[in-house]
């Protein structure tokens, strides 16, 4: 321990170094709890709400931060795609790792998703008729291209694609109709419809 004596003041350099080491250890332990991926570079206010529910504000393509959440397990790798978590790959080892995650919600988040290559768009591994050049994943199973709106890879007949809005919990709307799981809700007014 090094001590510098100044009249009326004593500076202890040894303790400050120890404190810095402890805080960096805490930070590294906390960082190890989060899943890997490049999402960390464009995220702020990162926290784990439950044992396997990650929540953070992610930067979208417009430069704004929006709140996003995802279920994860040890070994998952995520990317930030326009302000949302997208599971890129998983190195989860069920033998070495304990079952400390809610499998019901994990499968709901990370199975039956859209994917694409240079030529086609797929949902749950099956090829769809969605235009790959103008494809946009809207979340909750909804997607659109320059011509139509889709739910789980199937075209929603009569949906207005330019002003289609996903509300969450399988609900969506356009200026004329409200949809649940891709089907029109009769007599629902899109101007006053809200979900609680």
How are the elements arranged and paired?
Elements: E1 3-6, E2 9-12, H1 13-32, E3 36-37, E4 43-50, E5 53-59, E6 65-71, E7 76-81, E8 84-90, H2 103-110, E9 114-116, E10 121-123, E11 126-127, E12 136-139, E13 142-144, E14 149-151, E15 154-155, E16 165-168, E17 171-173, E18 178-180, E19 183-184
Structure explained in plain terms:
The protein has helices at residues 13-32, 103-110, and strands spanning 3-6, 9-12, 36-37, 43-50, 53-59, 65-71, 76-81, 84-90, 114-116, 121-123, 126-127, 136-139, 142-144, 149-151, 154-155, 165-168, 171-173, 178-180, 183-184. By secondary structure, it is mostly beta strands. It has 2 domains: 34-111, no CATH class; 113-196, no CATH class. The strands form 6 sheets. It has a 4-stranded antiparallel β-sheet, with no helix packed on it. Strand 4 and strand 5 (53-59) form a beta hairpin.
Short structural summary:
The chain has 196 residues and is mostly beta strands. The chain is 14% helix and 39% strand. Strand 14 and strand 15 form a beta hairpin.
């Amino acid at each position: 321990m090094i001590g510098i004596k100044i009249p009326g003041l004593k500076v202890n350099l040894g303790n400050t170094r120890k404190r810095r080491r402890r805080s960096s250890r805490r930070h590294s332990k906390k960082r190890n709890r989060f899943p890997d991926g490049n999402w960390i570079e464009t995220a702020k206010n990162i926290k784990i709400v439950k044992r396997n529910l990650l929540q953070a504000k992610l930067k979208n393509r417009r430069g704004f931060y929006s709140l996003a959440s995802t279920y994860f397990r040890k070994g998952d790798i995520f990317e930030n795609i326009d302000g949302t978590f997208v599971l890129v790959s998983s190195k989860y080892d069920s033998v070495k790792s304990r079952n400390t995650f809610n499998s019901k919600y994990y499968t709901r988040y990370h199975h039956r998703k859209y994917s694409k290559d240079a030529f086609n768009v797929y949902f749950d591994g099956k090829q769809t008729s969605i235009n790959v050049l103008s494809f946009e994943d809207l979340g909750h199973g909804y997607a659109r291209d320059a011509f139509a709106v889709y739910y789980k890879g199937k075209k929603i007949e009569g949906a207005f694609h330019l002003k289609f809005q996903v509300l969450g919990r399988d609900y969506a709307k356009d200026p004329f109709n409200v949809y649940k799981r891709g089907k029109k809700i009769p007599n629902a007014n899109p101007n006053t419809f809200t979900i609680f």
